[in-house]
């Protein structure tokens, strides 16, 4: 069994952590923003010096989020498929009769690198992953030609097409 849950979380300089034991809530404030989370009443969360002692993964993601942030890189593959950004609105042309639009939120930002590559960034790991999955879900990569939106580095299992008539 993993022992990573027992490791204390080191609080970097510039990050402020407040634990409200009565409300069973924790607030992490850093240079990129503020995150709030509730924890189970049977859990004990203690801040000692510059470390947090707790079951760690969710709170560790909060600390990393407010200091470094999270990023998901996506790419578009397919002839005629492209992305464009005007202001805070990402417009995807994916072979539908209409363009698909996604807008930046107050916590999620979309950065366009070129017409085929873009990134989704934010401070909440779950929110960044969910938004990236929704964008990818508009046109997931299909198995015959591999066309669609995929994560950078994602391997798409390819299928063979029809082989033609039998003997």
Kindly describe this structure.
There is one protein chain. Helices cover 15% and strands 38% of the residues. It is mainly beta. It is elongated and about 70 Å long. The model has no long low-confidence stretch (mean pLDDT 91).
Note the main attributes of this structure:
2 helices, mainly beta, single chain, four-stranded antiparallel beta sheet, 167 residues, 13 strands, elongated
Number of strands: 13
Mean pLDDT: 91
Mind describing the biggest β-sheet?
Answer: 4 strands, antiparallel
Molecular shape: elongated
Question: Poorly predicted ranges (pLDDT <50, ≥5 residues)?
Answer: none
Gyration radius, in Å? 21 Å
Portion in beta strands? 35-45%
Please give the count of helices: 2
Q: Give the spatial strand order of the biggest sheet.
A: 11-12-7-13
Structural class: mainly beta
Order of helices and strands: EEEEEEHEEEEEEHE
N/C terminus separation: 56 Å
Proportion of residues in helical segments: 10-25%
SSE inventory with pairings:
Layout: E1 9-10, E2 16-20, E3 25-30, E4 33-38, E5 46-48, E6 51-53, H1 57-67, E7 70-77, E8 82-86, E9 89-93, E10 100-103, E11 108-114, E12 117-122, H2 125-138, E13 148-151
Antiparallel strand pairs: 1-6, 2-3, 3-4, 5-6, 7-12, 7-13, 8-9, 9-10, 11-12
